[in-house]
Design brief:
11-stranded mixed sheet; 16 helices; Dihydrodipicolinate Reductase, domain 2; globular; 25% strand; single chain; 34% helix; alpha/beta; Rossmann fold
C-alpha cells in the first residue's frame, strides 16, 4: 500500500506515527507521502520519523491537477485527505482524476437553509460527496467518507451494534466528552482543528427522525451522560456532525434505525465563547474587507489561536468517543454504549501527538491496513466501489484490530444514559 497524505497537521502526523508503530517492517505499508502546503513543516516532521518509507512533499490541496500529478509521481494507491473539509471538493476530484481510492475524516460542508436554518436543512453535510458515488464506481475505487473517530469509529460501532447486539434499533446517539484540562490554564482551548470546530459548533445542529433530517439550535436539549473509565458525568448538547447524516444514509444497514443524534460535551465556557463568536460574526468563513485585504474572520481566529496539537500536549486526562444505541433484543429493551477511551499522556508518549488528533488518526490507519490486506469490502453485502461511510462495511475486522493498535474498544450495558447495568467489557470479549 502506498498512501498520499495531504495535510500534515496533528491528524496527519498522528497517522504517520501510528502507521509506523503498527507496521515497522513494511509488511503492508510500502510508502507514505506526507504532503502539505507548508513544505518545511512536512519535511521537518518526516525527518523525525527516520524511516525511508516516509517522504515529504509540498502541495496546494486546492490544485486538482497538482495533487493528481503527485499521486501519479509516487503511484499511490490512496489519497488521504487530512485537510479541513472545505478542501474535500478539489481532493475528491484529484482522486477521480488520478483514479485512486480516497479517504477523508469529515464530509463536504453544509450550507444553511436560506430562510429557516434552525428548522430546515439546506445543503446537508456530505450532499456534495455522495453525488460523486457513480463516478467512483465508474473507476472501480472507493471514496471512504467520514473515516476518523467521529465520524468513523463511532459509525463502525453503530454497524457492529446493529449486526450483533440488536434485533431492532430505536436510536443511535453519538456521545463524546472528556475530563481533559490544562492545569492552571484559564479560558478556552481548541483540542482539534480550530476552523472545523467553529464550523460545527456554530452551524445549526442536526437530528435524524422519522425518515427526515432536520435542524435544531446548536447545544440544544442539554442532558447528562455518564462516561466510563473515570471520566464520569458530563453535560452534552446537540452539535452538527456527520454521523447523523451517515446513519440516516445507511439506515437500511442499521436495522431501520428510527432516530440519530450527535451530542458533545463542550462545557459552559466554550459554549459561551461560541455564542459570542456568532453574535459578532467572527465565526464566518466568508471573506470581508479589512483595510486593503480580504480576510475570513474565522481564518483569523484559526491563525491566532494556539496550535491545537501543541497546546493539546499539555492536557491532563482522558477523552471518550462512542455510540449509545437503544432498541430491542429478543423482545426486551436494551441500551448499550460502545466506546473508546484514550489518555493524553499515553498518546503524547507513543505518537508525539495529543489525544484528540491521535484518536482521530487511528481509524484511517486501520482502514488502509484492511484495504491493503483485502479485508475491507470482502464480506457479503459490502460495497465494492463508490462513496461510502463506515456503516456500509461489516465492522468485525475493524473491531478485531483495535487491540493490536492499542486502542481497544469498550462496551457497557446501561439502564439509562447515566446508570450502568453491568461493568465494562471489551468489544472482543463481547464478541466471544
Amino acid at each position: 500500500m502506498k498512501a498520499l497524505v495531504v495535510g500534515t497537521g496533528g491528524v496527519g502526523q498522528s497517522i504517520a506515527a501510528i502507521a509506523k508503530r503498527r507496521d515497522p517492517k513494511g509488511e503492508w505499508l510500502e510508502q507514505m507521502i506526507m504532503a502539505d502546503y507548508d513544505g518545511k513543516r512536512a519535511a521537518d516532521f518526516v525527518a523525525t520519523l527516520a524511516d525511508p518509507r516516509f517522504v515529504a512533499e509540498q502541495i496546494d490541496a486546492s490544485d486538482v491537477d497538482a495533487v493528481a500529478a503527485l499521486v501519479k509521481k509516487y503511484d499511490a494507491d490512496i489519497l488521504m485527505n487530512l485537510c479541513a473539509p472545505n478542501f474535500n471538493p478539489p481532493l475528491l476530484q484529484a482522486a477521480l482524476k488520478a483514479q485512486v481510492h480516497y479517504l477523508d475524516t469529515a464530509m463536504t460542508l453544509s450550507e444553511p437553509h436560506p430562510t429557516d436554518p434552525m428548522h430546515k436543512c439546506g445543503v446537508k453535510l456530505g450532499d456534495k460527496e455522495y453525488v460523486l458515488s457513480p463516478e467512483f464506481e465508474k473507476i472501480g475505487k472507493y471514496a471512504l467518507a467520514g473515516f476518523g473517530v467521529e465520524p468513523g469509529m463511532a459509525d463502525f460501532f453503530a454497524r457492529y451494534a446493529a449486526d450483533h447486539l440488536f434485533d431492532e434499533i430505536d436510536e443511535i446517539g453519538i456521545r463524546d466528552g472528556s475530563n481533559l484540562e490544562i492545569p492552571g490554564a484559564k479560558g478556552i482551548s481548541f483540542g482539534f482543528s480550530v476552523w472545523t470546530t467553529i464550523e460545527e459548533c456554530n452551524n445549526p445542529a442536526i437530528v435524524y427522525e422519522n425518515g427526515e433530517v432536520h435542524t435544531i439550535e446548536p447545544f440544544a436539549e442539554l442532558e447528562n451522560f455518564w462516561l466510563p473509565e473515570g471520566i464520569g458525568e458530563v453535560e452534552v448538547g446537540h452539535v452538527e456532525h456527520e454521523e447523523v447524516i451517515q446513519i440516516a444514509h445507511n439506515a437500511d444497514r442499521l436495522k431501520g434505525v428510527k432516530k440519530a443524534t450527535f451530542k458533545y460535551a463542550l462545557g459552559d465556557e466554550f459554549m459561551q465563547a461560541m455564542d459570542v463568536f456568532r453574535s459578532i460574526n467572527i465565526d464566518k468563513a466568508e471573506k470581508i474587507k479589512v483595510g486593503d485585504v480580504m480576510v475570513a474572520p474565522r481564518d483569523v481566529i484559526a491563525a491566532a489561536a494556539p496550535d491545537p496539537n501543541e497546546i493539546g500536549k499539555k492536557y491532563v486526562g482522558q477523552t471518550a468517543a462512542g455510540t449509545y444505541v437503544t432498541g430491542k433484543r429478543d423482545g426486551k429493551e436494551r441500551k448499550v454504549y460502545l466506546y473508546q477511551v484514550a489518555d493524553n499522556k499515553e498518546c503524547v508518549e507513543k505518537y508525539g501527538t495529543q489525544v484528540v488528533v491521535a484518536q482521530t488518526a487511528f481509524t484511517p490507519v486501520v482502514t488502509i491496513e484492511l484495504l491493503a490486506k483485502g479485508s475491507l469490502g470482502s464480506k457479503p453485502g459490502d460495497p465494492k466501489s463508490g462513496v461510502h461511510n463506515p456503516e456500509a462495511f461489516n465492522a468485525d475486522d475493524y473491531v478485531a484490530l483495535m487491540p493490536a493498535y492499542e486502542f481497544p474498544g469498550g462496551f457497557l450495558e446501561m439502564e439509562s444514559e447515566y446508570k450502568l447495568a453491568q461493568d465494562a467489557q471489551t468489544l472482543l470479549d463481547l464478541a466471544k
